[in-house]
Amino acid sequence: MNLISCEKLEKSMVEIQFSIDADTFKKAVNNAFKRESKKYAIPGFRKGKAPRSMIEKMYGADIFHYDAVNDLFPEAYEAAVKEAKVDVVGRPEPEVVSMSEADGAVLKVKVAVKPEVTLGEYAGLNVTKKVKTVEESQVEAELKRMQDRNGRMLTREGATEDGDTVDIDFEGFVDGTAFEGGKAEHYSLVLGSHSFIPGFEEQVVGHAAGEEFDVNVKFPEEYQASELAGKDATFKIKLHEVKYKELPNLDDDFAMDVSEYDTLEELKNSIRKGIEDNNEKMADQQVENDLIEMVVNNMTAEIPQAMYDERIEELVQDFQYRISQQGLKLEQYLQYMGMNMDQFKAQFAEQAEKQVKMRLAMEAIVAKEGITASDEEFDKEVQRIADAYKMEADKVRSIVNEEAVKADLAVNKAIDFVKEKANVTTETVSDETAGQE
User: Fold this and answer.
1) Where are the strands (E) in 257-333, listed by range?
2) What's the CA gap between 54 and 131, in Å, rounded?
3) What number of other Cβ atoms are within 10 A of residue 333's Cβ?
4) Which residues pair with 350 in a beta bridge?
5) pTM of the complete model
6) What is the DSSP secondary structure assignment for residue 263, as one 8-state letter?
7) CB neighbours of 111 closer than 8 A, spacing ≥ 6?
C-alpha cells in the first residue's frame, strides 16, 4: 500500500487516496479466480474447469478485479489510515479510481474522523450544589415500606376489603362472546392496585372466598387493543381465596427485629442519615453533570453524524446483552413494545449525543492538560473489573485493551480536574423548593 493523499473535507470528513502495487493486485486477482471460478457457467466446460480467459471473455475482463479489491481493501485501508495519522469513525465510503494487473489499483475513501475540538472555559467554572433537606415524611415513608415488607399474609374470613390480595379465575365477554386474552385461572390481584380496567377491582370488594359473580366494566376509549376500546364487557369471576396483610407495630421490638438497632428512634436516625447521604451523592452528581454541560456548551466542534450513530449502536448492543441475560431476545422485546428497530434506536439518540460530546470535551482537556493514567491506576482498574465480574485479575488483563482502559481513566481524571477547579457554592433546598425550579 502506498498513501497518495489525505484531504480534509467539510464536517469532519476526509478523503484518503492510496494505491496497491501491481504484483500484490495480480496475485489477489489470481486467487480470486481460483476461489470464484466455479460460480460461472461456460458452455462446454464443467463449473470450475473453464480457463480464466474464457470466463473473462464472457463476463468481462475485470470480473475478478473487484473480488481482488474486496480481498485487499481491509488491510490496505487500515495501513493507509495509520500512515495518514487520522482517527477515523464510522464506516468508509470506498471508490475504485483505477485497477489493472499491469498498474495495480488506486482507491479512495471518504470517511468521518474525530473532529478538532476548540475548548472554551473549563477551569474555574461557577456552579451551585443544591442539597435537599431530609423531610420527616421521607423517614416515615421508609418506615412504612419496612413495615409493609415485614408484614405477614393471613387468610380473611368474610368479605374482601380494599388492599386485600385475592386469588381469582376470570373470563371476559363482549356481546356475549369470550375475547382473546380475557381469561386466567388463579390470578393474584391486589385490590386497589388499579392494575385492572377501571371499575373491576372495586366490584370484587365485598365478596367472600367461594363466591362466583359477574363484574361489568367498560374498556377505556384509548385501550391498547383497539377491538375492545370503548366496549362494555362482563367478566365472570370465581373467588378462591382472600389474603390480607397484618402489619407489625412500629416500636422498639420492630427496630430490633428488622435492623441492628435497639430502639425505633435509632432506626429512624439511621434512615435519616441514609437519606442525607443519598441527597449528598445526588447533589454531587448533579454538580458534575452541570459542569460537564458547561464545558460542552463552551466548546466548538463539527461532530460527524457517524460518531452519534456509532454510539447508538454501542448502546443498543449493551441493551441487547443485558436483556439476553434474562433470556430475552431483542426481536422479542421490540415485538412486546410494538416498536421497530429505527424507533428503538431513536430512543438512544439524545443519550448518545450527550455522551459523544462529553467524551470529546474531556479528551480535549486530557490533551491540553497532559493528563495520563499511570500503570498503578491501570492495575487498580483491572482489579476492580476482576472483583466486579468475579474473575482473576490476570484473565481480565489478557482481555482488556490497556490503551483503551487508560484512555477511559484519563477521561475520568479530566472530569475530576474540572470539578476540582470549579467554584462550588452549596445551597440547602427543600423538596418543595427543588420541585419549583
Assistant:
1) none
2) 81
3) 15
4) none
5) 0.77
6) S
7) 13, 14, 16, 81, 88, 89, 90, 91, 92, 93
